[in-house]
Design goal:
With 158 residues, the chain is α/β, with parallel strands linked by helices. The chain folds into two domains: 71 residues, Helix Hairpins; 78 residues, Roll (Chitinase A, domain 3). The protein is 38% helix and 26% strand. A five-stranded mixed β-sheet has the order 5-4-3-7-6. It starts with a strand and ends with a strand.
Length: 158
Amino acid sequence: MNKVPVTIRGHELMAEELKRLKSVERPAVIKAIAEARAHGDLKENAEYHAAKEQQGFIEARIKDLEGKLSHLQIIDVTTMNANGRVIFGCTVELIDEATGTEIVYKIVGEDEADIKIGLISFTSPIARALFGKNVGDVVNFSAPSGEKQYEVIEVRYE
């Protein structure tokens, strides 16, 4: 399997979630299952079935995270010399040519992306259009809402 790029912060968040699942949530659901078992008949024990279902979700997420963590390529953008170009992990400030609105995005891995806080996946149409661009360059790309045109006004490696 190919390596999947992720920022240092993205790796930390995934590792923290895995640790929490293994050390807090898994033991808690095991305890809940044991307590529900103690109540007797398992066929009609809603607490038992709910705890078993929760255990399934936790185990699936643990497996998912372990698989992802084993295939990550952690990229520290602060150590790279990109000469002002847009690269994975950078923060890019843009101006929407149509509205004059200023937008700031950080280009991150797929699992880290959250458009609400300005984190966009490196596989998104805008990120793909931005890669390799410099301050002053204008990018055109297709967004779900139609064609967009942004000017790059700043690129930061933080």
